[in-house]
Write a structure and sequence with these properties.
single chain, nine-stranded mixed beta sheet, binds zinc ion, Arc Repressor Mutant, subunit A, 14 strands, 3 domains, alpha+beta
Length: about 475
């Protein structure tokens, strides 16, 4: 039997507002533990939450980018649960009336586009951070004590929930990468996985190909790398197929994916929604976003990354178009005149390898450099590329050094080197062909790296073989 994976994602994104969701404590990564707290986010008795308007605007903007309907009325609820990182005993979140619903996200692919349905995107506050100490490699299993950092408590968090429309680990990884780039371009989050400002949970099930049933799914929690997501999904797909083929049943559970470890460890069996005893937050009125706020956000959207991939793949192949857009390099590509494929390759490969920030590179000057790429020595090209992020970079400063490909210029140099190394010449002629590299090196050194290595190779062979 052929099996079809059915994959859905929940993505959490920290909004990079200046202050937290319901109090005026500063947000930000890297502050000393418990230095950014107040009675509201520490849940002292009698305090009142005040919503962050900017967080609401940004969630609307994200919802529009995901093709969602913006609710005329959204309600904050209390999601009740006990945990040390949650001093109120509940989290303020949105439940049955979220800000954004019923979206559709376009995922371009080699074989055409896929519409990934978005169930909802809602706004909530993050919990504090538990820091597990003493063994267990930072995880609760094996730790002997836990410290709580409340800096993260109350940070604005958007949760995006997709339909189970993804069909492979590779497609899921590409979806997550494109979603991350979209979020970053909207300017609402750094979406840095290392800092935890973007993390995702993935639901996986399998079914016989061609069927439309939804079988029991398992959930991989708190993944913070695209590669881990892909590995974890792939492993889970294979595990579930093996269970069904062995006549067993998949159990609904939450798994903690550990890279390099054979099996994901079960974390807990999945709670049902009613376990949380959701109730409308009595301290907050419903949000009714004004039409102007929604229209303003819509006007600010610009051309989204998925649309740009579709546009660029008409002049490049899909892989290059997707790579440029998801790495945030297509802006430079579009500012740089010249042969499209040559420009795309330089921007995607050499410039990226040189570690340059693409937003700082002058496209016009880079275009001149790409155009001259085959006429100037490789060393000069790389040196120019390395300097191309400087504000006063001028390509012409580096174009003066032409490659020496003219035999009449190279022959005297070659003859001089052969005359000065007669022992090596004799050894070469006696059969030590490997010495050719030595002679090439000498010519390159003599010409300051400007000689065309292809011409040097050819001329050296001709002159050495003429005994
Ligand atoms: Zn606070």
């Amino acid at each position: 039997m052929t099996w079809e994976p059915v994959i859905g994602c929940e993505i959490h994104v920290h909004l990079k507002t200046q202050t937290k969701m319901f109090c005026r404590c500063a947000t930000g990564f890297g502050a000393p533990e418990n230095s950014s707290t107040c009675p509201v986010c520490l849940a002292h008795p009698g305090v009142l939450p005040v919503p962050n308007e900017r967080a609401i605007e940004w969630t609307i903007k994200l919802g529009l980018a995901l093709g969602c309907d913006i609710a005329p009325r959204a309600v904050f609820h209390r999601k009740n649960y006990f945990y040390p990182d949650n001093p109120k005993g509940y989290q303020i979140s949105q439940y049955d009336e979220p800000l954004c619903m019923s979206g559709s996200f376009l995922l371009p692919g080699v074989g055409g586009d896929t519409e990934i349905g978005i169930v909802r995107a809602h706004l909530e506050e993050d919990a504090a951070k538990n820091v597990h100490m003493g063994g267990g490699e930072g995880r609760i299993h094996g730790a002997d004590r836990t410290l709580v950092d409340f800096n993260r408590a109350g940070m604005p968090l958007v949760e995006i929930v997709t339909q189970p429309h993804l069909r492979s680990s590779e497609q899921t990884k590409r979806f997550l990468q494109l979603l991350r780039q979209t979020v970053r371009e909207l300017g609402i989050s750094d979406a840095e996985m290392q800092e935890g400002s973007m993390r995702f949970d993935v639901n996986v099930s399998v079914r016989p190909e061609g069927s439309d049933e939804l079988r029991t799914r398992t959930e991989l929690k708190n993944i913070n790398s695209f590669n881990f997501a892909a590995q974890g999904i792939e492993r889970e797909i294979q595990r579930q197929i093996a269970i069904y083929e062995g006549g067993g049943e998949v159990v609904q559970e939450t798994l903690h994916f550990v890279p390099g470890q054979e099996h994901a460890a079960p974390l807990r069996s999945k709670e049902e929604a009613q376990d949380y005893r959701y109730l409308p937050e009595p301290d907050l009125v419903p949000i009714e976003p004004p039409a102007e706020m929604v229209e303003q956000a819509r006007a600010e959207l610009g051309e989204l990354p998925s649309a740009r991939i579709r546009r660029l793949e008409t002049e490049l192949d899909f892989g290059l178009a997707e790579g440029l857009v998801t790495s945030g390099r297509d802006g430079l590509y579009e500012r740089t005149p010249g042969d499209r494929r040559a420009v795309a390759n330089v921007v995607m490969n050499e410039l990226a390898a040189a570690g340059l920030d693409p937003t700082e590179v002058n496209g016009e000057e880079l275009g001149k450099l790409v155009e001259a790429r085959d006429r100037i020595p490789r060393e000069a090209f790389m040196k120019a590329l390395g300097a191309s992020g400087d504000g006063d970079f001028k390509a012409e400063d580096y174009l003066g050094e032409a490659v020496i490909a003219d035999e009449s210029e190279l022959d005297p140099v070659i003859e001089r080197i052969l005359a000065a190394n007669d022992e090596n010449v004799a050894a070469y002629r006696a059969g030590k062909q490997g010495l050719l590299g030595f002679f090439v090196g000498q010519v390159m050194k003599e010409t300051g790296g400007k000689a065309d290595p292809k011409v040097v190779n050819t001329r050296l062979r001709e002159l050495l073989d003429r005994s």
